[in-house]
Amino acid sequence: MAATAVLRRPWLGLFLLAACLVPAVLCGATTYVVQMSRSEMPASFPHHLDWYASTVRSVSVNSDESESATADRIIYSYETAFHGFAARLSEEEAALLEQQHGVVAVFPEVVYKLHTTRSPGFLGLQSEAFMGVWANAISSHDVIVGVLDTGIWPESPSFSDAGMGPVPARWKGACEVGGDFASKHCNRKIVGARTFSRGYEASAGVIDEREKTPRDRDGHGTHTAATVAGSAVPNASLLGYAPGTARGMAPAARVAAYKVCWPGGCFSSDILSAVDRAVADGVDVLSISLGGGVSSYYRDSLSVAAFGAMEAGVFVACSAGNAGPDPISLTNVSPWITTVGASTMDRDFPASVKLGSGLNKNGVSLYRGRRNLSPQEQYPLVYLGGNASSTDPRSLCLEGTLDAHAVAGKIVICDRGISPRVQKGQVVKQAGGLGMILSNTAANGEELVADSHLLPAVAVGEAAGKAIKQYVKTSRRPTATLSFAGTKIGIRPSPVVAAFSSRGPNFLTMEVLKPDVVAPGVNILAAWSGAASPSSLPADRRRVAFNILSGTSMSCPHVAGVAALIRAIHPDWSPAAMKSALMTTAYVHDNLLRPLRDAASGAPSTPYAHGAGHISPSKALDPGLIYDISRHDYIDFLCTQKLTPLQLKVFTKSSNQSCRYPALASPGDLNYPAISALLPAQPAAARLTLHRTVTNVGLPASTYHVKVSPFKGAAVVVEPSTLRFTKKYQKLQYKVTFVTKSRQPAPEYGGLVWKDATHSVRSPIVITYLPPV
């Protein structure tokens, strides 16, 4: 999907520099993260750092390696959310290290990628009643959100601390200064700013000391931080688009910026160190808009670090990824992480294409520049693909493919794919083109994402693109003009699940439904870096205070910000309780009261795309019931994953802790707010019973009745069908039994709802009929 923040950044492919360029490391060595069992440290070592160094020396391929050389190879020590270190090792050394006493696991370095305002109003966060509740809560409990990203631009008015009280005394963070980042750049809003670059430098090359500061020269981190907790800024816009007051989800919350991403990517050893430090600093919520490959829970260092954060009571929100609409494309799928997909809002930026034939086609654009096309005049139109199904590389408007003789003075049709959308317009402009029509292909369907183009340009859906190309093919002298209508509010239907948003099922454990929720992630206005252009292209000399971006990178901080609101109202809730509140109050109908649609197909969306649904912040503050999950519950879940004792130790951190018996009957018995049932193929065993426990966080005395969607292929029975609570925080159990009636070729979707007089607590249900073995 080309609508991601990351695909606008050509530098992400530049990290493959030789490790031998880095001083004090082994030629050919790679960074590995080594998890250690702190409880197994021999008493002969005065400090765990001495133990780590001795462990590395014991496997060194250089028998004469000095203590100082070993120390140079250890680039990080992890002490809070994770125990161990990161070091430069050869492949042989890494293999030997796995056999050493006290070593729990060895993770190779992984490069993560960034998953790149009306949203507060769209989410109902600007009502007087809601803001009153929030203001009262924040006065008694300060909430701090840690943002792992590209840093922060502190001069943005979104980070003004006007009216904020003193920084909480419990905060242990720091403001790292250097270069053009001074202590004055931290305040009562930006309470901390740190950089983590040792893993990057060990693999990709040394960063200039003047650049090694928390300052954001990319823009992505500033955008996500402002989305989480930006202060209210009136009269904000991008070049006049999306005008209004820009504010974050939790404008009274504090921000701690942890810079882990650099021009060559985001390295796992740096990310792990940032999570470890953030938990020690005292953050309440972590917003992490990046992801990498997923192979297992215990081999994913971010998953392991997030588990440690959860143990410390920190809520962790991560982006789902931008690989949709392909199925099984999710990242960050661990059940202790809140995985966030992307959806649209009811705001758009309409633009149109008027053809010489008189036909009009609608699209979107954020173009605002000196070069404009007259709506009353027609201009030559060209498509170098030749026909609607061409695979000619010129149709993609890639660098070096356009001939000035063919495009100069014309509007050029470019197909999406391979290169960033805005870069295609730059190629057209450099070749002398007057404008661009950016056409979706089958991979993008009818989803439209607006961009701040460098020349007049309109993005159109696949159907409109085909019609325009057909006109070019059949007309002797095809012409067109482009016009731009600014900002439009009240778009229907909305929200719609973004086509680029990554999809389930969760291939590691289908019984854990992912993503968890969706939130606004398309055309989001938020603060921007003064060092970057709105297009992120080097040739773009424009500078803006606010920018509009799309991606699950943008939806993740929406959820992190709402989690900050929940933490302020309910400071004693666990991360699982907060996630439950977000999920069980999410809605699954748009503003036309129809089921949420999928932008990729136009058909109704499924829980594999939207999870429990679209977040509803005001309802999440008072969910009625919650599905809580403890650390021990997660361990029981991991015991169903057939982990070896050593693999389980990655999470338990102790060789003395093993699986409890009886443990969970199946992974589906994890007390998750969503229900995913896998019905076996054998008729005699085509029955499944799952168990759940709900905690009353509403009125002390309340009675809930259950309602379950009908399913074609299975009967679903809930016992008991009524839950009577007599006090607050009381826990009651129920079970859901599925009995196959008629096996279905595809999954079925529905919901289970507990209702009392004021609350509706909904869990999505997915029933999958397993094929015969």
UniProtKB/TrEMBL annotation:
Residues 31-115 form the Inhibitor I9 domain. SUPFAM superfamilies: Subtilisin-like. It comes from the Eukaryota. CDD domains: PA_subtilisin_like, Peptidases_S8_3. Residues 141-597 form the Peptidase S8/S53 domain. The active site is at residues 149, 220, 553. Pfam families: fn3_6, Inhibitor_I9, PA, Peptidase_S8. InterPro entries: PA_domain, Peptidase_S8/S53_dom, Peptidase_S8/S53_dom_sf, Peptidase_S8_Ser-AS, Peptidase_S8_subtilisin-rel, Peptidases_S8_3, S8pro/Inhibitor_I9, S8pro/Inhibitor_I9_sf. GO terms for molecular function: serine-type endopeptidase activity. Keywords: Glycoprotein, Hydrolase, Protease, Secreted, Serine protease, Signal. GO terms for cellular component: extracellular region. Belongs to the peptidase S8 family. This is Subtilisin-like protease. It comes from Colocasia esculenta.
